[in-house]
Structure formats: structure tokens, C-alpha cells
């Protein structure tokens, strides 16, 4: 700190005492604010004006030498922060230019640390053009791929700077190009500090934070949307979605940029401007939907998705009607038909007769008219069944039948009709085997219902699949076809499955196909053969749990199958999933046998606890369910102990997250409390005490064990077990008034019953010092100290003596902690730098 005063006084041409005296005089005039030992001239309007004048009075070379050589990072940050407000100062620009030059202090942005990125962020407003050029220099370097990605530890800071630079139309396209490079590195699911959402905000009609023209933004969208690269055209559609937004506009952007005068970006001044905006993007989306670009299907879905908002909020009736007509002349647009119906359903009452009539006209234009169109609608549409039902042409059915069941039946009937029209079937075939659709299974059932030559139809499926990339193949229609075929020609469906086991296309999805058909004893033999061949990934066999087993398949047969699956590499997890589904069904019908319970214990003992095993996100619930079902008896205690040990080992080896298994711990503690105590405490006391992950879980498990069980367990070997249990028990709880703590009855009984209460108290004493906390640690300890003070009057003089000594020791710890917290608070918050 003294060194900083020397540097500043040298720049000011006075000694340290004079500088200090002048600062004190400024404070008396309320022109300087004080935070701890730091001082700053405020408000900013005065500070910026004075700083600008001094930059003019002192040669830039002297200032740079002073701040760049042997200066603390804090002072550099403070200086760069002030420079950021001086974009109108020639001297400030000269310093920024010097720092941002290729060989300057901030020229190598690929090698930044925390201080450099904060300085770069601070001075970016001084010369936006040069700041952008500094980032662009990275594009040609060999480390560019890593820099323009989330692997860059400061990617969020660079993206936010580029977002601010894109405010000016002159810098928009260059800035957005670089943000796109960052965005294209972002994988699905990376939503924290999402680059794509920052980029998307620049393409809204309002609150965009940019004054780029409509044409500039359209150019960016078109260049991406018309790409052959899937990542690029999907990003283009993502930005096009923002341009078509009509309902909600929001932004997380801070529209400030140094001292630049900025608003929230372009906003239409009148009705003509916003109509011009939407016309450009509606017309483009319609053209893209009819183009040969890979983005065409996505554009059709996007325009349908935005239809309601564009119709009701913007009144772009001519454009939407024109889009509907142009698309319907070249292809069907079933998503648009559903969107129009949805708009009429929810908003029709608020429309005048003319607008409503135009909307109904669009419905009529887009309505599915042919069998092929209706088949596509029912197979692929994600829309509400409420709107689909009318398209059935007045299908009769049970009024009490759920809508989704009616839709499934209609889809099946349509499949039956389609297969009877060879031309329709061949047109539909590429789509039903390559696209996703919620009712393809039922369409497949209908195809089997209506076909005269199942072998020929199956061959046509196979031929079409062979023309597709493996990643594009969808087998739901085949599953539905097999299911229906098995009901009328079991022998043929079994033949198809036999062939699938060794087929080069179907072998890797054989288990998925098999679970669509009732599994017989013969089917079990086929599954074992497939497992031995190993063509299908072991994870595929999890699907068997969703299948139906013939009455000829006994529980003993199922257990043999589970062991067969489990014996394969990584098969234990798959066997667990299959058994979980089987047990769930058996429990519903009260058909659970001892054989399956025994198999459940065996599989759980081999279960590979790991993070990757939780692919569905509910492994805690499913494991707990299996424990409740399979480990409820006294006979399961030994196996329960082994399971506890396996679980504890996985925690210690960091194979699973510590907070993901509450249900498992509760299930174990309730079903087998003695096994939990034996495994977690008696044989693993040293591990439990020395490993925080294990200790945290054991404390949680014991919270589910009844008090009398813990005390009874301790009494079996009191000298050894009371301290062990004390190390895993939280001895206090919140009072009913929630303002203070009190001893738990269990803890007081343990102190009273222990042969050596001091050993128990020492273990309890560890819990009074938090290892993780929010707020003030000293305050938390102070609240807990009262419990120790209360023991000073305990009837056992050893306990009272311990409490007196512990009170003094802990009070001293609290005093030191308060000093540390005060010092840290001063360091973090009593400063002017950001």
C-alpha cells in the first residue's frame, strides 16, 4: 500500500506526505469516499473529468512506465477500470492502443489470467474497434479451436464483450461471426452461461442490445440456415426463431459499456417498421421451408411453432396466409394446420369475423385431405390429440375412452389402410424408418394388420433400412409390426427375430425388437444366444424389462436370464434394470417369489455404483425400491452388510456424488439398521472419521435409524461402540421455536450411558465446528457453544470439567474466526475495484 502511494505521489510531482494531506482535504470536502484503507474520488462524473485532465497533463509514456513496471495487480486493475470510462480521451485511447497492440500488455489474449481478462474487460469500451481486432487475431492461430470454445476458461467474458461490441452496426457482423464460433462449440445441454442464448438475444425485435439493421441480421441468419453443416443450420434456425418471436422479449444483457451512452438497442418506431421486420423473416422462413437446404423441414416446424404469436400479436395475416398457400402447393404442412387450429381454439373468441374467417380458410387449405397426409399427421405429429381428433373424419368411439387411446386406434387403422395402397406405402416408407414420431409403433401395428404378405413387407422395411445411415434408423415401426404379427402368426414373428440375432443390420437392436413380442421359453434361448454373440450393446438388453413374458417362463428361468446378462461385461447394470421392471410388475400383482428376491440381492451386490450408471436420473429411487423389496427380511442382514460396504467404498473412491443417494440410505437404514451400523461404524470407523464424503453419508443414514436401536447396538460393546456412534451422530437439533439449538435426547443418553463419556464428548465436539457453511462461521459456532456451556452444570463432574475446558477453547477459536472474517470482509468488499 505504501508503494502505491509512492508511485502516485511521484506521478503527481509531490512527496507522500503532501499527497496524503491533499487526499485528507478532499475527504473533508466530501469529494473522496473511504472504504477500509482505500480511498477514491467519487462521484464518477467528477473522477472521470479529473482523470481525463491529468492524462492530458502527464506524458503517456511516463504514465505507462509507472503502471506497467513493478506495479501491483490491484493498481493495474484500478487504473484500467478508470480508463474504461474515458473513451473520449485521446490519452486513454493511446494507452488502450498500446496495451491492445499485438506485442502490448494485453495483446496476447490467448494467454490471459484473471487479472488480464478483467483489465481487458475494463478497457474494451475505450477502443471497441481495436478490442475486436485483438480477438480476431486469435482466429488465425493454431489454438483458435480451443480459444473459441467453452474450453476457454474466460469464454463467457469474451462472449459478453463481443455482445457489447455488436451494439454498433459497423461492428455487428464481425462480432457476431466470432460469437458464432463460440456458439458452434457448445453441445446440447450446456445451458449454464449459454453462448447460444447470448447470441440469440441479438436477433430479437426488441431488447436486442444492438442497432444492427434488419438486413445485417437477416444476412447472418441466412448464411447459417442455408449451410449444409447440421450444427450451422440448426444455429441459423435458432436465431431465426428469435427473429420471429412475437410474444415475449427479455434480455439478461447489461446495456452499459464503459461511459458510452447506450439504449436497449433497435426498437421499431412505428407499425410500418415492425411489419417490415416480420415480413422479411416470415417470407424467408416460408422460402427456406420450400428449399432444398437441409434446414427446410426445421423451417416448416419453426413457422408453425411461431404461427399463433405472429397471427394474434402482430396481425401478419397476408404473410402467413401467403406462406400457407405457397407451402401447401408444394407439399403438406401438417404442423401449420395444427397451429392454425390451436390459434382458433385459444384466441378465436377475441377475433373479429373477418380475421377468424381468414384463419379458418388457412385451416381448410392446410387440412390433411389424403390418406397419406392423415397417416403422416397421426404418426409424426407432436400436437395435442384435441386437435387431431377432428381429422379422423368423425370416427366413432367410446365417449369415455381417453383421447390418446382413440388416437392410437386411429393411427393403427390408418396403417392398415396405407399398406393396402402400394404407392402411399412406398412414399411413407423412408420417413417412418428415419424420423421420430410418437405413434409410429401403432402405425406399425396397422401395417401388420393390413398386409397380405408379411414377408414381403418385412423385406421392404429391411431394404429401406439398408439405405439409411445407422444413426438415422428408427425401429419403432418394426416393433409395432412384430407385436401385431405375433398375435396372428407367432411362428413367422419368431422367424424374423431368429434372423435378426445374426443379421448385420438388426443384430445390434435385436433386444429392442424382442421386447415388443411376448417372450417365450424359446425366446429366452434366443436371447442367451444373442448375448453370447455380443452383437448388440449390453445396454440394449435393459429393454427386456419392458417386455412381456409368457406364462411358460418361470421365475427360475428369469433368474437364469438375469445371471446370463450379469455375467457379460458391464452386464450388472443392465440386469439390474431388467429385474427392477420385473419386480415392479410382480409387486403390482402380488406374485413376488423368494427366488426373485434372492436374485435381487445377488444383482444388487454386484451393482456397479458409478455416475455413468445413473443414465435416467432416478437411480436413487430405483435402488431404494429394490432394497425395500429384496432386503426386508432378517435373513438378508449379511448381504445387506456387504451392500453397505460396497456403497461406502464407492463414496470413498469418488465414484458417486455424495448427495445423490438419500433414498438408498433411508431404505437401508429402515430395512437393515443393524447391518448399516455394523458396516458403516464397527468395521469402518477409521474410514468414516477420516473421509468427509463417507462421514456425511453415515450421519445421514443414522438419522433414519431409531434411537433405541442405536443405543442397543452400542450396549453390545459399550467401550468401543459409543465413541464410534458418537462420531456419526449429529448431537443437536433446532428447537421448536427455531431460534436456538438443543441437545438431542439420543446424544444426552449416549453421554450418560457411555463408560467413558469424554470420548463421546470429543466426538460430539467435532460437530460444533462446521466444515462447510454459509454466512458467518463464527456466528454458527457461537450458537453451538451455548450447548457446551449448558453441560458445565452436568451431574457427572467429568462432563462438567470437559465442558469448562471446551468452552474456553472454543471461545478462543470463535474470537480468531471473527478476526479472520473481519479481515476477509475488508479485503473482499471494502475496495473500489471490481
Describe how the helices and strands are arranged:
Elements: H1 2-12, H2 16-28, E1 32-35, E2 38-41, H3 44-57, H4 60-68, H5 73-83, H6 90-100, H7 114-123, H8 128-136, H9 144-147, H10 155-165, H11 169-184, H12 195-201, H13 214-225, H14 230-243, H15 271-289, H16 296-314, H17 317-330, H18 334-347, H19 353-366, H20 371-380, H21 385-388, H22 403-419, H23 422-432, H24 440-450, H25 454-466, H26 476-488, H27 490-502, H28 510-514, H29 521-533, H30 555-566, H31 571-588, H32 594-605, H33 619-630, H34 637-652, H35 662-671, H36 673-682, H37 685-690, H38 692-702, H39 707-715, H40 718-726, E3 732-734, E4 741-743, H41 745-753, H42 757-767, H43 777-790, H44 797-829
Antiparallel strand pairs: 1-2, 3-4
Brief rundown of the structure:
The chain is mainly alpha-helical and 834 residues long. It has 44 helices and four strands. Helix content is 64%, strand content 2%.
Question: What are its keywords?
Answer:
single chain, 834 residues, mainly alpha, 44 helices, two-stranded antiparallel sheet, 2% strand, 64% helix
Task: Please tell me about this protein's structure.
The chain is an all-alpha fold and 834 residues long. It contains 44 helices and 4 strands. The strands form 2 sheets. It has a two-stranded antiparallel ribbon. The chain has a two-stranded antiparallel sheet with strand order 3-4. The chain is flat and about 105 Å long. The chain starts with a helix and ends in a 5-residue tail after the last helix. The relative contact order is 0.03. The model is unreliable at 391-397 and 684-693 (pLDDT under 50).
